[in-house]
Amino acid sequence: MGDLSSLSSSLLYAAFFIYLTATFFFAGTIRDNSRKKTSLAGNIAITVTIIGFLTQLGYFFTRWAAAGHAPVSNLFEFTTFFGMMLVFAFIVMYFIYKINVLGLIALPIALLIIAFASMFPREISPLVPSLQSHWLYIHVTTAALGQAILSISFVAGLIFLIRQIDQTKKTKQTFWLEFVIFMVATTLAFIIISSTFSAFNYEAAFEAPVEGQPTEMTYEMPAVAGPYDGELLTEDAMTPLIQAPEWMRGVDAAIKFNTLIWSFFGGLVLYGLLRLLLRKRVGSALQPLLKKANPEIIDEVGYRAVAIGFPVFTLGALIFAMIWAQQAWDRFWGWDPKEVWALITFFFYAAYLHLRLSRGWQGTKSAWLAVGGFAIIMFNLLAVNLIISGLHSYA
Amino acid sequence: MNEIKCECGHVNPEGTVLCESCGKPVADNQHLNGNDDQKLLNMRYDGSARRSQTYNRTIIDKVWNFFSSVKVGVTLIVITLIASAVGTIFPQEMYIPPGSNAATHYENQYGLAGQIYYQLGFHNLFTSWWYMVLLAMIGISIVIASLDRFIPLYKTLKTQKPKRHDKFLKKQRIFGTTESTEVNMELLKNNLKKHRFKVKEEDGSILAEKNRFSRWGPYVNHIGLIIFLLGSLLRFVPAMYIDEFIWVREGETKVINGTDGEYYIRNDEFLLENYDENDERFQEAIQRNGQPVPKTYQTNATIFKRTDDVVVGADPELEEIKQAEARVNHPIKFDNFTLYQASYQQNEFRDMTFELHDMDDEDTTYGEFTVDLSDPDSEYELDNGYRVVLDSYFPEYELNDGEPVSKSKYPKNPAFVFNVYPPDESEPEVSFAGIGANVDGSGENDHKVNLVDFDVRDVTGLTIRKDYTLPFIALGGAIFMIGVIQGMYWNHRRIWIKPKEDGVWIAGHTNKNWVALKREIEKVTKDTGVSSPADQQELKG
Predict the structure, then answer these.
(1) Shared domain check, B505 and B424
(2) Is the same domain home to B19 and B144?
(3) Same domain, residue pair B29 and B108
(4) Residue in B74, B286, B540 closest to A354 by CB
(5) Order of strands, edge to edge, in the sheet holding B415-421?
(6) Which residue in B81, B329, B513 is closest to A327 by CB distance?
(7) Which residues pair with B450 in a beta bridge?
(8) Please, which residues have CB within 8 angstroms of residue A1's CB and are 6 or more apart in sequence?
(9) Could you list the residue range(s) of the whole structural domain that residue B428 is in?
(10) Predicted local confidence at residue A394, as pLDDT
(11) Contact A329, A130 (CB under 8 A)
(12) Could you tell me if B68 and B150 lie in one domain?
């Protein structure tokens, strides 16, 4: 058993680096000036991507064998799977439209998601009774696949916006595009900071009241914001600069707040450094790289992704979810936050489709909607599990 | 009705934008689709006569036009979306700890924001009247918008003829002219057929069409949604839906709520199994969790059916109909009822055994008695003429302002006041006995009532459901999926070819994925002598 699960972890590491390599090959296609549809760099890049995908499938099935259940049962496993489905959706889209630049954006996002996933506890966890059902595999995998295909429309939207937004002057659009890039930097900062401190085994224990009871809590990053009314127990750990506000109750609230502060400032530093180096907006620096992309085809890819992803998402995240909920919790719908956010995602893309089909929202408007949709998907994945808890927060 | 006769001879209904037959723009109606002479034709709904665009006089017209608007529909969706998001900021009332008072809970837990949330009614958002109204309006909008578009579109696509008006062709997004006398029409037709187009001809003009059924997708999925919404409304019809709950102790036989006294259940055993902490696979995760991780909740139950007529007070005659296990994800089913393992309580006291002895000598004994906690006797006779009268019983004892009270009727922390009558005494000694408590009522008692033994049992909590609305919900969901796949995974494509004196004209239209249509036209026109048409609308971004 132990061997299988360590093999599984190695395969995931390998997949990560293979995706990274593929990204560089996709970057290589930018300089390729040949007018042919397929290029050598592009062929290598997609082949490497497929090898990476197969390696990650290897991770998935070896972990399944080790755990005795499909590895989609906690935040680490689900987020990793979501990253894998994103790569899969990209591969499918690549073969429909043969656009290299799609890989240049899709793979780094998948990489970020997989790296982000591994910041959560990675050990194999047992299944609580409500999860012991075949619907776990069916519902979770289909929902993740649907979200991943919908995310491809975000990838296309991002390419469209970077290529098309007028960068000669400062506008609302350039601001929000920079904001999206800043969010990516923040995610990256979180991953770097989090893995650095965990490499050094940093720990700072506090004692603070939780619902009146003195409770011990352990920070894994230096506490910029200590718990409200907390007392530092660990010697030579940094004393908090500020206290988390009183309304942040719960054992982990102050810790999460602290992590958020670290990520935010880390993101600011990363983004600030980029701006210093580039001496212009990041979007403006990226624009020339995407010159080759045909905006009309990119727009269609974005729409196609929604057209394919919307039914898959509905089936997995709403219909299968309802069937399972009926079986496990005696009602098919219970207004649990995760359910509500799946419904919000459904409403959002339904609005996207109506606006596009009937009101002609194409191009820039459509691209911004795709960005908004991805924000909702990420919110449902993370915020609902970490901040708004409900029946679904297993991790 | 002011019918419009086109120059091709076809008579169109009032409000038509493009002739149903030849596609010629109807001069007076171009504003309806926002067409102007300089631009391409707006091909929405093929320029058919929609009621909402034609009439706007009576109040019915106005209501119809309001609900048929996509702008209104999307606005309703967006409002519902935002409202739903607000509803997840704090837990809904049904998810706050049982027994807590919503009026104070939100304020205590979340401060001012919580209080505002409560006072605006967001704690019960999803059952609030205005949320229902939003959903109902979306439902109405779906019906009206679909009827407004489907009927005229269906008629138009049925009426269309292969021979199209020049103006129609020229103003298509995909349009090209070929000046050549060597166009291989036979090859072109064959290519079209190979690409699974249905080819129709009229005076040499060709209409190649495929996947028209994909245009009906939106209307099919809207029908599905309506069935789904109506299905959820059926819940409010009493006989359609039963939702009950029952606690059953181990060994107890109880009538099942919601079955009109027809069915009984006996809890034979309740099982709670945790994961083995030493299981190599899960060791780390269980340690992180800090407490045991449950593996199974299970009730072994026997279901009975009452065979005699239901008479209040009479003991029922029961016939066993099945033995079954209710586990999470594996409910018990019988006669349209479903029993779900929903809750449990472990180690509820079943009975307690007391011993009576001298106050200062535990070795003496005047006998034992056992109190059945679900049905205590009022008096217990002991050896040697001793008598114990049960004065008060507190199933879940606690002190409230110095007074003993019971928090609930469930024996979670039982305590008793006993009146002990030694032989030939008429004045009792008052004793208070409970778990870890033994109080001498007067301070002058000669005897002591001492707890020597107890039995515990588990209680299982089961939800009882009967739901005749499920088939409607499932049907609605299935139709929705069929419709959405039909509409999204196929594209309605049309290619028109019209012979001219000096060559041919070609035009193309699709409801989505234009790049793919252009590629397909490339393929079907290959080697036929027809030159590639141009895309007359480049994306402006």
Answers:
(1) no
(2) yes
(3) yes
(4) B74
(5) B379-381, B387-394, B415-421, B429-434, B437-440
(6) B329
(7) B355
(8) A66, B280, B281
(9) 351-455
(10) 47
(11) yes
(12) yes
Q: Which two tokens stand for residue B473?
A: 């919900």
Each residue's pLDDT, cut to its tens digit, for chain B (541 residues) gives 578 888 888 999 988 999 999 999 988 888 888 777 778 888 888 888 888 888 888 999 999 999 999 899 999 999 999 999 998 888 888 888 777 788 888 888 777 888 888 888 888 888 889 999 999 999 999 999 999 999 999 999 999 999 999 999 999 999 999 988 888 889 999 999 999 999 999 888 999 999 999 999 999 999 999 999 999 888 888 888 888 999 999 988 989 988 888 899 999 999 999 998 888 888 888 888 788 888 999 999 999 998 887 776 777 888 999 999 999 999 999 988 999 998 888 888 888 998 888 888 778 888 889 998 888 888 888 877 888 998 889 888 888 887 888 887 878 888 899 988 888 777 888 888 888 777 777 777 888 888 888 888 889 999 999 999 999 999 999 999 999 999 999 999 999 999 988 889 999 999 888 888 999 999 999 888 888 898 888 644 4
Any A CB within 8 A of B293 CB = yes
Contact criterion met (CB below 8 Å) for A47 and A54? no
User: What's the CA gap between A250 and A388, in Å, rounded?
Assistant: 12
Which residues from A are below 8 Å from B111, CB to CB?
247
Q: Which chain B residue shows the shortest CA-CA distance from A320? A: B477
Q: Does B126 touch chain A (CB under 8 A)?
A: yes
Q: Are A148 and A89 in contact (CB under 8 A)?
A: yes
Task: Please indicate whether, in this complex, the C-beta atoms of A126 and B282 are within 8 angstroms of each other.
Answer: yes
Q: Determine the Cα–Cα distance for residues A238 and A222; give it in Å rounded to an integer.
A: 6
Tens digit of each residue's pLDDT (9 = 90 or more) over B134-167 = 999 999 999 999 999 999 999 999 999 999 999 9
- pTM of the predicted protein model: 0.88
Side-chain half-sphere of A206: how many Cα atoms within 13 Å? 27
Q: Which of A56, A73, A55, A285 is nearest to A165 (CA)?
A: A285
Interface touch B288/A123, C-beta < 8 Å:
yes
Give how many domains chain B has, as a whole number: 3
Residues 421-450 of B with CB under 8 A from A: none
**Residue B527 covered by a domain:** yes
DSSP code for A198: H
Q: Is A83 left (phi over 0), alpha (psi -120 to 50) or beta?
A: alpha
Least Cα separation, residue B89 to chain A (angstroms) = 7
- ipTM for the predicted complex comes to 0.89
Q: Do B116 and B176 fall into the same domain?
A: no
Return the residue in B115, B333, B515 with the most chain A beta carbons within 10 A, the one to mutate for interface testing.
B515
Identify whether residues B497 and B450 lie together within a single domain.
Answer: no
* B382 and B507 together in one domain: no
**Same domain, yes or no: B355 and B375:** yes
The ranges assigned to domains in chain A are: 74-167+284-386, 172-280
Q: Which of B516, B525, B528, B517 is nearest to B494 (CA)?
A: B517
CB A327 within 8 A of CB A189: no
In this structure, is residue B255 part of a structural domain?
Answer: no
Asked if residue B406 is part of any domain, the answer here is yes
Q: How far is A159 from chain B (nearest CA, A)?
A: 12
Does position A391 have pLDDT exceeding 60, yes or no? no
CB contact under 8 A, B281 and A5: yes
Residues of chain A contacting B288 with CB distance shorter than 8 Å: 121, 123
Q: Are B90 and B115 in contact (CB under 8 A)?
A: no
Q: What's the pLDDT tens digit per position in A146-182?
A: 999 999 999 999 999 999 999 999 999 999 999 999 9
Question: How many whole angstroms separate alpha carbon A315 and alpha carbon B141?
Answer: 23
Least Cα distance to A83 among A104, A48, A61, A52 occurs for A52
- Any domain includes B265: no
Chain centre distance of CA A11: 20
Sort out which chain A residues have CB atoms less than 8 A from B470's CB and list them. 326, 332
